[in-house]
Amino acid sequence: MPGFRHFLARFRPAGSPGPAVGGAVPADRTAALAAELEPPLTALDDTAAEAERIRRAAAQEADRRRRAAAQRAEETVRTARERAPRLRRETAARLGAEAEAEAARAGVRAEAAVAELRARARARTPGLAARLVAQVTRELDTLADSAQTGPNRETPWARDGSPE
After folding, report:
1. What are phi and psi of 21, to 5 degrees?
2. Cα-to-chain-centroid distance, residue 36
């Protein structure tokens, strides 16, 4: 790297090309800048080469990872497709068992409802039968009374025709 004196020489006034001025020489700024920038640019060349190597390695690693991920995805899909029929059968069996259990529970509830309905019918039948017998008896008594007392001793349906 140039020394401090050379650094300050960059700021020495120099005239435009023409006759020489006392103590000053036209500075070759291009050469000075090139000489000053050559070591950092050389270091940058090494850094650029290293960056390119890192990019190539990263691209290769990314490609390797993509291939590995694609292979894992294919294996996952293949495994899922192999397992799907078995899982469907298991699910169908489980749902069938649940449906059968629910049907059995519904059957038990229905049988309980039928038993309750039959018990109520058995409990009510004697009372209903007694009421029906009493009503029929009253109607027959009424008919018998009217037949004995009235001039027309025909059957109740004689007015409307035969019940047949």
Report:
1. -110, 150
2. 65
